[in-house]
TrEMBL record:
<protein>
    <recommendedName>
        <fullName>3-aminoacrylate deaminase RutC</fullName>
        <ecNumber>3.5.-.-</ecNumber>
    </recommendedName>
</protein>
<keyword id="KW-0378">Hydrolase</keyword>
<dbReference type="InterPro" id="IPR006175">
    <property type="entry name" value="YjgF/YER057c/UK114"/>
</dbReference>
<dbReference type="GO" id="GO:0006212">
    <property type="term" value="P:uracil catabolic process"/>
</dbReference>
<dbReference type="GO" id="GO:0005829">
    <property type="term" value="C:cytosol"/>
</dbReference>
<dbReference type="InterPro" id="IPR019898">
    <property type="entry name" value="RutC"/>
</dbReference>
<dbReference type="GO" id="GO:0019239">
    <property type="term" value="F:deaminase activity"/>
</dbReference>
<dbReference type="GO" id="GO:0019740">
    <property type="term" value="P:nitrogen utilization"/>
</dbReference>
<dbReference type="Pfam" id="PF01042">
    <property type="entry name" value="Ribonuc_L-PSP"/>
</dbReference>
<comment type="function">
    <text>Involved in pyrimidine catabolism. Catalyzes the deamination of 3-aminoacrylate to malonic semialdehyde, a reaction that can also occur spontaneously. RutC may facilitate the reaction and modulate the metabolic fitness, rather than catalyzing essential functions.</text>
</comment>
<comment type="similarity">
    <text>Belongs to the RutC family.</text>
</comment>
<dbReference type="InterPro" id="IPR035959">
    <property type="entry name" value="RutC-like_sf"/>
</dbReference>
Length: 130
C-alpha cells in the first residue's frame, strides 16, 4: 500500500527515525508528539496546560497538512508523566475536541525527556490522499 510522509512546514528534525505523520489509504497516523520546539527543546517546562496546548497544536498542523481537520481525529493515545496533571490535560483536550470526542486511552509513564509532561499520538481518517 502506498504511503505518504506528512511533514508540515517549519517542522524540526526528529530526535529519532520517524516523521510527524504517515498517510496511507486515507488514514493518518500522527507520531507521538511531545512539547518540543523545532530544536527538540521542551517548551513550557512545569506547565502541563501549556504543554498540552502546544502538543495538540502540532498535531492539528499535521492533520491539516494531510488535508484534514481535528474533527477527523478518531483515536488518541495520551501518555502523561503524572496523574496530578490529568485534569489540566483534559481541559485543554476538550478545547481541541469540542464535539463528538475521539476514542482514546491515557497512561502514566516516563517520557523521553524529563521536563516533558505529556505526549499524544493520534489517528485520523482524512480521506484517500495517498
Amino acid at each position: 500500500m502506498p504511503k505518504t510522509a506528512i511533514i508540515p512546514p517549519g517542522t524540526g528534525v526528529p530526535i529519532a527515525p520517524f516523521v510527524p505523520g504517515t498517510l496511507a489509504d486515507g488514514v493518518l497516523y500522527v507520531s507521538g508528539t511531545l512539547p518540543f520546539d523545532k530544536d527538540n527543546n521542551v517548551v513550557h517546562v512545569g506547565d502541563a496546560t501549556a504543554q498540552t496546548r502546544h502538543v495538540l497544536t502540532i498535531i492539528k498542523g499535521v492533520v491539516e497538512a494531510a488535508g484534514g481537520t481535528m474533527d477527523d481525529v478518531t483515536f488518541n493515545m495520551i501518555m502523561l508523566k503524572d496523574w496530578a496533571d490529568y485534569g489540566k490535560i483534559n481541559a485543554v483536550y476538550a478545547e481541541f475536541f469540542p464535539g463528538v470526542k475521539p476514542a482514546r486511552y491515557c497512561i502514566q509513564c516516563g517520557l523521553v525527556k524529563p521536563d516533558a509532561l505529556v505526549e499524544i499520538a493520534s489517528i485520523a481518517h482524512v480521506g484517500k490522499k495517498a
